[in-house]
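Lab manual, section 2.4: Encoding a predicted structure.

Procedure: take the sequence of the chain (742 residues), apply the prediction step described in section 2.3, and record the output as structure tokens. A sample record is shown.
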Amino acid sequence: VRDFWQTYPKALALKSDGLHVRLLPLLPPNAYEKESADGDALIRLFYPYRNGKYQFNRGLEFMTELYLLLEQGAAPGQRQEMSRYAQWFNNPLYAVPDPMVACATGALGPVSPRVEGEFDAYTHLVEKGFAAIEERRQEKREYGWLNYGDWHGERRFNWGNLEYDLQWALGLEFLRSGSLKYLWRGAQAAQHSVTIDTVYEPWSSRMAGLQWTHSVGHIGNFFDRNDDRFRKFGNVFGLSRPDAPNPFVAGAIDVAGHTFVGGNFLYAMLLGDPRMLQVTERVATHQAAYLTPSFDFSIERAAGWPLINAVEAYETTGNPFYLNAARLYVEKVLAKQDPEIGDFRLRHGPPECMHEPRHIGGKAFATGVLLYGLMRYHLLTDDPEVKRCILRSASWLARTSWNKETHAFRYLSTCPTFGRRRGNGSTDLLCAPGMAYALTLKPDPEVREVLLDSLSRAFAAHVDNGKGYAGMIRQTPYALHLLREKLGVRQIQPPAGSLGASVRPVLYVLPGESAPLHLIVTREASLPETCRVRVTSAPRGWKIEPRELAFRAPIGTSASPALQVRAEAGAKPGEVVLSCTMGNRPAGDLRVRLMPRAPAVTGPAPDAAGLAVLGPSDTLTAQAFSSRPGVRVGIAPEEMTRYRAVVLPCDFFASGSAKPEALLEQLSAFARGGGTVVLFQLNDDIWQPGFLPIDLMLSDTNGELGSVDAPEHPLFAGVGNLDKVICYDTITYADPGWKVLA
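Recorded output:
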């Protein structure tokens, strides 16, 4: 039985009537009862078992491979030979094509094989990412007859259903490198996709050929959508409102933006699997037949994935039906694109854009998916309108979506809530092939500059799950090929600033007093430990000592010794420029805005009492606090002096009506006057922690809770075991003036 334990439960029994191979064996009534006492384990692994019975949805096809060797009876000397058959079955021989030959066929489009000494940072990203998802698979026990081949953790509770087509990404990497580890991991993913995640037997018309979107238990419907086990962690599913019907618990299907066929077509060819080909073509046909008659889209990827699927189906089968579907998708894309701006004029709403009127703009990551599809279509058709569309879209990415200050694409181009960076990684790499292809159609120095800048940072990105990994590597080889063959680029150098030096964006100083300014350094073992920082320019009225310092940085994130910044009487706002080096390598210029401020003191009024939550009363935080005695919600900052303490929640800034900088004076004056300010749910997408009085560095890195440093704190009273709790941001450095609780 192939993958015997990985697809548990399985059983073998030798009885008088022969050998019994039990692919889904009978279970005792209390099967997995003890293991299911852990709520997270129940939702992740033991959801399909109830009272000794298996639960699964209609339309699902489950497949197990067996190898039968029929012999009259093996002589003692033959037993070792028979054991070799079993080993071969789980690790079969495979005729690996030479990567140079495989890529030269053009069967997968314009890609190049791995070459040592070229794009080494990307190769390192692919290798470390593969190791990370395999390690995560073992840690989270991503096994079982419904789970094997997929990855878990999308929106905390969901199985990913191979979003971003992990099997395509791994099959492509196998053909570029010749490494069998990518082949077999991708094969597991493809097998899962065409069985568990695909509706094979319909129970109503138009069902056959649909794919389930990332859901709890892959297909949903195992739990009540209002189950408290999901609600207690807040709106982790990103619903438009907390009480909205939860499609991911019920089982979601998105026929446009979450349907993927390329990897399954590729593996049908790589494995010579007619069943996989049949199921995959059914999915492609369903999408092309039912989506095209009234096609429209409200997010760019909902046009990108159908276009990619149609092109890949056409290239696999040669059936012009799919090419015609691609043409119909492209017609709508061309019609929606703004000829001046270059985006597709899409309106965005809750839970992301909370403004009225809703902002109209675009999302870079989704545009990257669409641009890749347009590139593949243009390579087939050489359509001049599509060429113009690609050029406009690449220009929009470089000139509107890219934030030059933070060196990252904005998540949503026009909404101020997302004016800050979202972090480099999959967004940059999804956008890369379309931008590179645009440069081959028409040179554009700004597009080239942004492309190379974004790649240099993305190649150093952190990989912690299958979704991020697939997004990073499924399209990037096309960008590398175009850079190599058309633009003469064979290595991407890390940017100077990526050596790990950063500094707070603004420093407030009371006139006549000094404030410390620290350099925050993140050092990997490969980087030199000696760091130097020098003041290259400072505004009049400001004194900075020392002007130069050298220090040794330990591995990890740490702060430099302080530069003391003094505001003389009459000092005006200005900017100090610092030059930083690590060893002999420049880490670039760092800039800090210096702001004098008056020592205002307000504090609570004499009759102040209770605690107030700042911001609108309809935010998630306000709703959570509304039933607590002695707490008022829906309070404006001007009213805070009526209370002893105020909570400033993260979602206060979601409306875009205020930023931390604007509230700094009021909050500081309130605290200096004896009031207490609680900063709730710091998050560096919305918060600007550089405006806080002392250094606090945050990142978007997600992961399990590192530690509770103050378990005796009242905040943790009544809180049970916090093991495995997912934190959606990470404190990378905190000044000793902060007390970090967890």
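Check your result against the sample. The chain has four domains: 11-90, 99-214+252-494, 499-596, 611-734.
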